[in-house]
Design a protein that fits this description.
With 224 residues, the protein is an all-alpha fold. The longest helix has 31 residues.
Length: 224
């Protein structure tokens, strides 16, 4: 009897989604870095200050602020989405768990030969691993928020010095509207994006995408 063998896929095929997304990120990040550098030097010129080289710009408050202001909102979005989909449902959405049927993701982990090592180890390692995705997003959000706040403060104080006006401490700046305006304008855009995929996937389809229900699935069918 001949055993069926799984096809041997190339490295590029096995990792094509991650590789394309990383490439898109790097291209966009390079574009942000260059155009942000140009924009910042334009602002410095208006304040009658000399332009700064790219190496100095990458360490500047402006660069930290615009970078981590966006990263912060993305990690918040993913943390909230992972957490809310544990408990909440949306009838008809491909992004929701079933209203009635038990889900594979809710079962207790069982140690087996191919299980991740925390599952085999058990105890507090397993307890931590069961929540590791959420914890990772919380940590990434927290780091990004504080880097955003630090960069935004440095950028604000640089502008204040060039205008010969008083600067602020971190404690003062945390209570300012500028920092929270920067955060809220990004947070709301992330929530509207997630809400869109949750609601639009009830009625609309994309053949071949795991984010969509099958094209012939009923409107009320919930989950993938």
């Amino acid at each position: 009897m001949i055993e069926d063998k799984k096809p041997q896929h190339s490295f590029w095929y096995r990792n094509s989604l991650s590789l394309v997304l990383i490439a898109c990120f790097l291209l966009a990040f390079a574009g942000q870095t260059y155009t942000g550098w140009m924009e910042h030097n334009d602002d410095l010129e208006k304040l009658q200050a000399p332009p700064i080289p790219l190496r100095e710009y990458i360490l500047s408050g402006h660069y930290l602020q615009v970078t981590f202001e966006n990263w912060e909102s993305e990690f918040l979005q993913m943390f909230m989405y992972v957490m809310l989909t544990i408990f909440l449902r949306q009838q008809g959405s491909s992004e929701s768990k079933s209203l009635d049927e038990p889900e594979e993701v809710d079962r207790e982990p069982v140690p087996h030969a191919d299980a991740p090592w925390p599952v085999k180890r058990g105890g507090w390692w397993l307890s931590l691993y069961k929540r590791s995705l959420t914890l990772a997003f919380i940590i990434l959000f927290t780091i990004s928020f504080w880097l955003h706040a630090y960069g935004s403060l440095q950028d604000y104080n640089e502008e204040q010095r060039l205008r010969h006006e008083p600067v602020q401490t971190m404690r003062e700046y945390i209570g300012s509207t500028r920092l929270w305006f920067e955060s809220f304008q990004n947070w709301q855009s992330e929530f509207v994006a997630v809400t869109s995929i949750v609601l639009l996937s009830i009625f609309l389809r994309q053949k071949g995408s795991p984010e969509s229900k099958p094209v012939d699935a009923p409107i009320a069918e919930t989950g993938n």
